[in-house]
Amino acid sequence: MLRTHAPTSGTALEIASGTGQHVTHFATHLPGLTWQPTDVTQDRLASIAAWSADAPDGAIRPPLRLDATQPGWSATHNGFALILLVNLLHLISTEAARTLIAEAARALAPEGRFIVYGPFLRDGRATSDGDARFDAAIRADHPDAGYKNDADMLRWTGESGLDLIARTEMPANNLALVLVRSKDCS
Q1: What is the sign, positive or negative, of the torsion defined by CA atoms of 146, 149, 150, 155?
Q2: What is the enclosing helix (H) or strand (E) of 24?
Q3: Where would I find the beta strands (DSSP E) of 18-107?
Q4: Cα within 13 Å of Cα(153), Cβ side
């Protein structure tokens, strides 16, 4: 999916890189991009740095502490050809998700791509009993979090100046949304 939709060159910001395994894989298989991994905790940043040692030279920048749910980060981190977000939106509140989307839109270069991957409700419903149980478990611990509805995502991204260019059903009932920054996004 990334080979099809990611730009061939530029800087790619991965939000919430976790251990760093994924960004190392991406950097190896998408050699025209320079990756900027991020996360919020020191132990994850250390793990990202360790995994990044296996990537081609210069393909991955040192990991950056970034809480992408906080307003204003796009003022100092911007101009990205690609922003990738995998498996985070269901773990944060709707307010935090909307902030992240708006900031990501502002952080993209003109015509930059924002790819969001993860579990979503489709037309307000879970796609399987397992997804319904997982969503309920998340909401039981964090009532403001949980799976986001696909239609809400498209509305929020549109309000932030992003246009949908691809919607792809992925394994394990996940969904990938590929968005592009509108020329008039500000």
Answers
A1: negative
A2: helix 21-29
A3: 33-39, 64-65, 80-86
A4: 24
Compute mean pLDDT per 10 residues along the chain, 186 residues long, and list them: 96 97 96 97 97 93 98 98 97 98 97 97 96 97 97 96 97 96 69
42-52 and 21-29 are packed helices; what angle lies between their axes, rounded to 10 degrees?
A: 30
Please state the pTM of the whole predicted model.
0.96
Separation between Cα atoms, residue 8 and residue 47, nearest integer Å: 27
Task: Report the C-alpha gap between 156 and 134 in whole angstroms.
Answer: 23
Tell me, what's the pLDDT at 155?
97
β-pairing, 174-181 vs 162-170, is antiparallel
Cα separation, 72 vs 107, in Å, equals 10
Q: What are phi and psi of 145, to 5 degrees?
A: -100, -165
Asked if residues 103 and 186 have their Cβ atoms less than 8 Å apart, the reply is no
Amino acid occupying residue 77: H
How many CB atoms within 10 Å of residue 49?
14
Cβ atoms within 10 Å, residue 71: 10
